[in-house]
Amino acid sequence: MTPAARLSAAIEVLDQYLSGTAAEKALTNWARRSRFAGSKDRAAVRDIVFDCLRKRGSYARLGLTGRGLVICHAAAKNTSVEEVSNLFSGEGHAPSLLVAEEKAALFPASPTESVEAVYNMPEWLGEELKTSVGADAEAIASGLTERAATFLRVNLSRGSLQNAIDLLAKDGVTAIPHDLAKTALEVVENPRKVAASTAYMSGLVELQDAASQSLCEGLPAANRMLDYCAGGGGKVLAYGDGNKAALFAHDAKPQRLRDLGPRAKRAGLKVQVLTTDACKTSAPFDLVLCDVPCSGSGAWRRSPEGKWALTHDAFADLLLVQQEILREAAPLVAPDGVLAFATCSVFKRENEDQIAKFCDKNDGWHCSYERRYSPLEGGDGFYIAYLTRPEPS
Ligand SMILES: C[S@@+](CC[C@H](N)C(=O)[O-])C[C@H]1O[C@@H](n2cnc3c(N)ncnc32)[C@H](O)[C@@H]1O
Predict the structure, then answer these.
(1) Repeat: present as a keyword of the record (predicted)?
(2) What whole-number distance in Å separates Cα of residue 371 and Cα of residue 219?
């Protein structure tokens, strides 16, 4: 496909997304209809679509349509009206010719200053971000419009960072250590080759964000660790690589745990899956991690659809669920144990405010540690807090 034909395809996909289809589904639908498209074309169309989702607020200056977004994307990637006009030539599979109004919007003299355009998120979330991170808000919002780096976690029980770097290189993947975690590698060349690489297939490396790795690395040592919201199990597996603890995993939606078995096997770890009732009968645990459902705002580079889909009601529901999970998990913690609360959110209302509310309502618990990971550190935005009960004196 020509670069112009890829733009036409992205317009088609974005129009389907804007009429209510999830972006991934719209991309799959397009790929099914377009058997002529090779893997490089599919990847290129995906990149255009995701860039438009990340920057939807500023790209919407020609209206919220697939064509409007893609025209602004093309303007951002080129430097002159002529270059963009050449792509929108109307010839072959290229999108139709630009009209005067579209040409005028390519390189506006004074860009729109609305919160939605500057922060590339709905206005209320831009305000939420300002309240949460103050002076860093604009830089964080801008960072969240960039494509996320690909990070790998090296399973240190399987080999060293250097072993992983060397083995990845044999499959054409270039990776370098990243400061956020001692297990973290950043893939700087050929991230799409990771999944088929020997290092990945053999369990030497796992895909995991660097801040997520750092958060797991910092968790206190325990004899019995329960990952209460385990999902795919990324955190319990990371914890298990560096600790000798007996590992347990739970999720309110057991189907979310389906990948955990094969992943644990690949990593050479044993993780016992518990139902909600079995968590109670197997308690106490000296470390319970609650990686709660959240807005995902720290990971909007990866999942930009989330910022446009989040509603006030859904956000309010998340705040309630987060408190409910802490209430459920607290009795599972041994008297001198740690209840760890984590989100991949940059919003204070999901982080510090939740911890303050829990400690306020639950006598004896206090926050003994907390750390914010800013997306400006390179990884996703995360928050972690440890809740403990001091020994009665
Ligand atoms: C942020 S995800 C966890 C991601 C996972 N820890 C990882 O590292 O891949 C949150 C998980 O919490 C689960 N969840 C939602 N409500 C819950 C509840 N009341 N109790 C336990 N888990 C819950 C969801 O099903 C979801 O899998």
Answers:
(1) no
(2) 11
Please, which pLDDT band fits residue 393 given cuts at 50, 70 and 90? low
Q: Both 239 and 374 in a single domain?
A: yes
Q: Using CA positions, which residue lies closest to atom 23 of ligand 1?
A: 252
Give the contacts of 191 (CB within 8 A, at least 6 positions apart): 150, 173
Average pLDDT, the chain: 96
Q: Is residue 120 part of a domain?
A: no
Report, as an integer, the average pLDDT of 181-203: 95
Structural domain ending residue among the three candidates 112, 128, 161: 112
Mean pLDDT of 42-55: 97
CATH number at residue 351: 3.40.50.150
Q: Is residue 350 assigned to a domain?
A: yes
Instruction: Establish if 142 belongs to a structural domain.
Output: no
* pLDDT reported for residue 61: 93
- Model pLDDT, residue 175: 98
Atom of ligand 1 nearest to the CA of 256: 27
Q: How far is the CA of 353 from the centre of ligand 1 (A)?
A: 20
The response to whether residue 11 sits with its C-beta less than 6 Å from ligand 1 reads no
Closest CA to ligand 1's atom 7? 234
- Which of 225, 227, 251 best tests ligand 1's pocket when mutated (most atoms within 8 Å of CB)? 251
Measure the CA–CA gap between 343 and 336, rounded to whole angstroms.
23
The total number of structural domains that make up the chain: 2
Q: What local confidence, expressed as pLDDT, does residue 127 receive?
A: 97
In a domain, 125, yes or no: no
How far apart CA 246 and CA 269 sit, in angstroms, is: 10
Q: Are residues 379 and 254 in the same domain?
A: yes
- From first CA to last CA, the distance across the chain in angstroms is 73
